From TrEMBL:
Signal peptide (from-to): none
Entry keyword ATP-binding: no
UniProt cross-references to InterPro entries, sorted A to Z: RbsD-like_sf, RbsD/FucU_mutarotase, RbsD_FucU
Organism this protein belongs to: Actibacterium mucosum KCTC 23349
Reaction catalysis annotation: alpha-L-fucose = beta-L-fucose; beta-D-ribopyranose = beta-D-ribofuranose
Pfam families in alphabetical order: RbsD_FucU
GO terms, molecular function: D-ribose pyranase activity; fucose binding; L-fucose mutarotase activity
Gene3D superfamilies (UniProt xref): RbsD-like domain (3.40.1650.10)
Any single biological process term in GO: fucose metabolic process
Record keywords: Isomerase
Name of the protein in its database record: Ribose ABC transporter
Length: 149
């Protein structure tokens, strides 16, 4: 246990988040996403796991992970097939966590197969215990500015 760090952020996840650089993507995926197969193609090369609901995982990750403010697609979500404008409850809950972390823009919809392609080029994939469909999101890492003074 560490002070000030959400206890669901295990050592493997903390390592990956720390190793990532500006512009690297992190995928937070539901339990049905082909996380292992996709993760083998990422920079990290293996799947990470946090067996909790996706919104809880987002809250924990965003407590230590800055979002990229230089691009418009820092936060993305997998679209519902055939219904790109549909926002499911799992997406609303994720969006609430992103907003609480200071990101006001809605998650950009990404077509399912385009999402798979983005995930393959990501730094890492965290598979969650989320069982609701379309609980798959992409977060692009930003920077932490230097201390003033």
């Amino acid at each position: 246990m560490l002070k000030g760090i959400d206890p669901i952020l295990n050592a493997d996840v903390l390592y990956a988040l720390r190793a990532m650089g500006h512009g690297d993507d992190l995928i937070i995926a539901d339990t049905n996403f082909p996380s292992d197969a996709i993760a083998r193609q990422t920079t990290l090369g293996r799947v990470l796991r946090i067996d909790r609901p996706v919104a809880e995982v987002a809250r924990a990750v965003l407590s230590v992970y800055p979002l990229d403010t230089f691009v418009d697609d820092s936060v993305g979500r997998m679209e519902v097939v055939g219904e790109p404008d549909t926002i499911l409850p799992v997406m609303q809950e994720f969006q609430a966590e992103v907003a609480a972390a200071g990101w006001a823009d809605p998650a950009l919809p990404i077509e399912r197969f385009a999402f798979y392609d983005r995930a393959k080029s990501a730094y890492a994939v965290i598979q969650t215990g989320e069982r609701r469909f379309y609980g798959c999101f992409a977060l692009r890492k930003g920077v932490i500015p230097p201390d003033e003074g």
